[in-house]
Amino acid sequence: MTAHYEYAFPAIRGVQAERVFFVSMCPLKLLSKMFVWDDDDLPTELRAQRTLNKGRIPEIVRYIERNPSNYTFSAITASVDASIRFVPYDGAAHGAATGVLYIPMDGRFVINDGQHRRAAIEQALKTHPELGDESIAVVFFIDKGLERCQQMFADLNRHAVRASKSIGVLYDHRDPLAALTRVVALSSHVFRGFVEMEATSLPKESRRLFTLSAIYGAHKALFDGISDLDDELQTKLAMAFWEIVDTQFPEWQDVRQKRMRSPEVRADLIHSHSIVLTALGRIGNSLLHSSKNPDDWRPTLEKLCSLDWSRANSRLWGGRALIGGRVSKAVNNVLLTTAAIRTHLDLPLPPDEQRAEDAYRKEH
């Protein structure tokens, strides 16, 4: 008689769409043994999942390694192709929700949601085996065939919406730059009350002038490669930088004083859009590398006010900040926009901007 070996999981039984499912906990060290990824060579139409994107795995591994005491993973969802048994705990009534789920070890598991988490956890355990005894929630469904597994994948991802970058910055308490951006957005007179804290784009009639994600992107450019500043000094320099910039854009001040409306400024001028904020951050980065004294930046930045920031100035901004009359945030457009501003300020172009500028001039 062949021995019958089983996994035993303490589980909760539930019903969803008239189908029984189970929720349990799985030790991390068992994930790679139970959920084997072997569908890569199958045609897409014969798989129950998308192809594993191996480029995503190192990022998740770094997240685990950098936050060993406070990482968070949502549950893995899997289908089980096996004859399972659910035994309620002793004394529990028939049909009880808690008990032990027995799954044959030769059963087949198909991950409907969470294959990248599984792969990253497997890789992290190679260098951090102590994580193996920690656990992750697993939702088990009974496998009803390939068509059902494919439908589950489609359903699980149908309404998945990635959180906006702005709200990510707002809620991220690990990233020092996000913390700095929140402080600046909430306390600087330049931004206070005029920053959209959740969305990454502004509705046409919004009274906000900036988005939190745009300010974060500008700060990322501003402090790129500068690591010798403590948090307090970094915040002080960011505040000083924007205060100088603000003096060059009277329309920003007019919005705060209610002499102009935000929608009018955004519609007619480009200097409150993320591409320009990032460009200004790149220019500020050059000034920071040459001097940490804000007084030294002022003579250069005071030339900003003499630049025509109008959307109607297609001769300058067309093909740079504007594509087909719409603001573009593509990397090359950021380089070209920065190059135009930098040239106006009589600053030399770094190699990446010079290459973009040379290519632009050949085409125009």
Structure in words:
The chain is α+β, with helices and mostly antiparallel strands and 364 residues long. It folds into two domains: 6-158, no CATH class; 165-363, no CATH class. It is 44% helix and 16% strand. It has a seven-stranded mixed beta sheet with strand order 4-5-1-2-7-3-6. Strands 8-9 form a two-stranded parallel sheet. Strands 10-11 form a two-stranded antiparallel ribbon. Strand 10 and strand 11 (326-327) form a beta hairpin. Helix 7 (212-222) runs parallel beside helix 11 and helix 11 (274-290) crosses helix 14. The chain is elongated and about 80 Å long. It starts with 5 loop residues before the first strand and ends with a helix.
Main sheet specs: 7 strands, mixed
Rounded Rg? 27 Å
Helix/strand-derived category reads alpha+beta
Unreliable sequence segments: 41-46
Q: If you average the pLDDT, what whole number results?
A: 89
Which helices and strands occur, and which strands form pairs?
Layout: E1 6-16, E2 19-27, H1 28-34, H2 57-66, E3 76-81, E4 85-88, E5 98-104, E6 108-113, H3 115-127, E7 135-142, H4 146-158, H5 165-171, H6 176-187, E8 195-196, E9 210-211, H7 212-222, H8 231-247, H9 250-256, H10 262-268, H11 274-290, H12 294-301, H13 314-317, E10 322-323, E11 326-327, H14 331-344, H15 351-363
Can you describe this structure in just a few lines?
With 364 residues, the chain is of the alpha+beta class. It has helices at 28-34, 57-66, 115-127, 146-158, 165-171, 176-187, 212-222, 231-247, 250-256, 262-268, 274-290, 294-301, 314-317, 331-344, 351-363, and strands at residues 6-16, 19-27, 76-81, 85-88, 98-104, 108-113, 135-142, 195-196, 210-211, 322-323, 326-327. The chain has a seven-stranded mixed beta sheet with strand order 4-5-1-2-7-3-6.
